[in-house]
Write the structure tokens for this entry.
Amino acid sequence: MGCQQNTHADSIIKGIKFYPEHSRCADAETCARSIHEAGFNSVFMPVLEKDLSDAAEFDLYAFRHELQKRDIRFTAVVQVFYDPVKWDEHPEWRALDQNRDDSPQSWQKMISPACVDFRKLKLDHINRIIRELNPDMLALDFIRYPVFWENVHVDSLHTITRRYDYNSLSISMFKNSFKVGSHLSGLPENLPSPEWESFKTHQITSFVRDVRAQVKDIPLILHILPWLEKEQEYYLTSTAGQDVDSLALYADFLSPMLYPMVPGLSPERIRKMVMDFTTRHPDIYLLPSFHFSDTLSQSLLKEDIFNGHVLFHWELAEKSQGLFFK
């Protein structure tokens, strides 16, 4: 299984990210009908453990049924290494930077990708989603190491100062994997290094591989950072741990988050980045994620360079439905 491009009109994804707690629609039927009338054929919704409980505030099961009635695909989004609940409960699982600092970057409370117990919990959660919701697609978000990328100019990635993950679990696993001398009492002296980069990307790719084994033929989407140009891919791999060639072996789509609030991401730059990436990776199918804005909706979404897209998010789209087309 790998990224494959499908240009059939019926397969083109017109997706919308949906957070019921932020929506003006009050119930599952109203939300599904409004999304259908706006012209979207796919809904991307984060599914947390609490959303599958009997005490859930929004009836996800009813929403899934209402979407099916309207032939709208339901994509369950799993926030992988971002988990504020487990972050609070298990300080020993937290991702640490090179100074052993576990303070989150803004709101992003993230877990060490090397934590075996946490990975098992996430895989169990994904298995429950598949069993109970039977989603049309599955998307993995926060499938990376911590980095507060939204405020970093795309031409200044070298200014990122916090590097991850130096949790003792990661260091111990790295030492064992690459036979780093046991006499080193602190951080391995050769970090960062090609071996460390390989170790980091393996933690991310191996989780995606395990998810692929669980979901079988369900299309799998991975949200990646918007660093698509050749010079930027080094940081995508070394900082975020996202090796696009390896990830594409297990995913059907890679979804770069091309949000206009990121410094340097103008519509013209986005076109350049996408063309540069697809030229170098012709076999990888991109499904861009855009933050909803009038400019992007009008200047990018209807262009031939995209075979589908996901908009972030429904609360903003509710205010401007006239921009969309069926």
Summary: The first helix runs from residue 28 to 37. Confidence is low (pLDDT under 50) at residues 5-9, 322-326.
